């Protein structure tokens, strides 16, 4: 396939109806957050959006200008690290956000500081989440964190927290401690909402069960809940005071949504109150029965 055909396919993905629809929802939500909640009340968020609003507060320039300029280097980093498709998605989203901030009139929605912090964060999170679902970003800090975590030896989350801590200290210096604390509420609300939008209500979780009644648990999960399982051979026992007392066991693993998890855990606990269960969050799955079901 030629480079021209590759570029044509990528552009069709960027400008597909679904991608544009998700971008428009996200950009509208972000515009409501910025113009309806944050700017009228001199509130800030974390990330590049927070820096852009801070520059707007200090120098009275349109917020979309620093937001676009600050994101361009990170779009380039994303192009180098993630790929051209991501960079085009991100650039389109940023340009559309700049247009929306100039064109869409949004009055101040409330003056209540707590409502501004909470619902400003909700709308920022909706904006970030839907734009990520469309393939782009409107805040490049995730890119720089991914780009530098290997060089610095810190995780992406640790780098983002460090950068945002610096931003909140600057906010406290220029706008006061109370605005900085409200901005922290906005930031964490936005993080939770965007995570929910990106991962959805069907966020997948690995449920692990160790039970002396393993055959009953296997049958319950597979036959009653129609879920696939994987069984590892393990060893149980080795408890304090009785080290050396041990026996072979099955470690049963199934991947479920968070809604299914509570029902399955309750059913297992009713059948075997002594069953040991623990859960692990899953960032991504691919292949197998789960993928085939999702494609239907």
Automatic annotation (TrEMBL):
Family matches, as Pfam families: DUF2179, YitT_membrane
Transmembrane region(s): 20-38, 58-79, 86-108, 114-132, 152-174
Keyword Transmembrane carried by entry: yes
InterPro entries recorded: DUF2179 (IPR019264), N-reg_PII/ATP_PRibTrfase_C (IPR015867), UPF0750_membrane (IPR051461), YitT (IPR003740)
PANTHER family in the cross-refs: UPF0750 MEMBRANE PROTEIN YITT-RELATED (PTHR33545), UPF0750 MEMBRANE PROTEIN YQFU (PTHR33545:SF3)
Signal peptide location: none
Presence of the UniProt keyword Transcription in the record: no
Membrane topology: Multi-pass membrane protein
GO terms for cellular component: plasma membrane
Keywords: Cell membrane, Membrane, Transmembrane, Transmembrane helix
CDD domains: YitT_C (cd16380)
Residue ranges annotated for the DUF2179 domain, each copy included: 246-287
Annotated source species: Winogradskyella ouciana
Location of the protein in the cell: Cell membrane
Protein name, entry field: DUF2179 domain-containing protein
């Amino acid at each position: 396939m030629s480079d021209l055909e590759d570029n044509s396919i990528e552009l069709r993905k960027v400008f597909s109806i679904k991608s544009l629809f998700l971008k428009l929802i996200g950009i509208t939500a972000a515009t409501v957050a910025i113009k309806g909640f944050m700017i009228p009340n001199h509130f800030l968020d974390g990330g590049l959006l927070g820096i852009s609003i801070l520059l707007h507060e200090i120098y009275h320039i349109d917020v979309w200008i620093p937001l676009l300029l600050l994101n361009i280097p990170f779009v380039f980093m994303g192009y180098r690290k993630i790929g051209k498709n991501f960079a085009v998605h991100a650039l389109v989203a940023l340009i559309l956000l700049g247009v929306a901030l100039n064109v869409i009139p949004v009055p101040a929605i409330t003056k209540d500081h707590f409502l501004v912090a909470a619902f400003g964060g909700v709308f920022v999170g909706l904006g970030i989440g839907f734009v990520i679902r469309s393939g782009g970003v409107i805040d490049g800090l995730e890119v720089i964190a991914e780009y530098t975590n290997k060089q610095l030896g810190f995780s992406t989350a640790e780098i983002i927290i460090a950068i945002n801590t610096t931003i909140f200290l600057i906010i406290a210096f220029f706008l006061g401690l109370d605005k900085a604390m409200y901005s922290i509420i906005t930031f964490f609300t936005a993080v939770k909402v965007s995570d929910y939008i990106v991962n959805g209500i069907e966020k997948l979780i690995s449920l692990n069960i160790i039970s002396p009644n393993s055959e009953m648990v296997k049958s319950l999960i597979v036959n009653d809940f129609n879920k696939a399982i994987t069984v590892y051979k393990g060893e149980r026992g080795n408890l304090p005071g009785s080290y050396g007392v041990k026996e072979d066991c099955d470690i049963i693993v199934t991947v479920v949504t968070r809604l299914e998890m509570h029902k399955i855990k309750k059913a297992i606990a009713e059948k075997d109150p002594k069953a040991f269960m623990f859960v692990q969050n899953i960032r991504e799955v691919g292949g197998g029965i789960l993928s085939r079901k999702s494609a239907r």
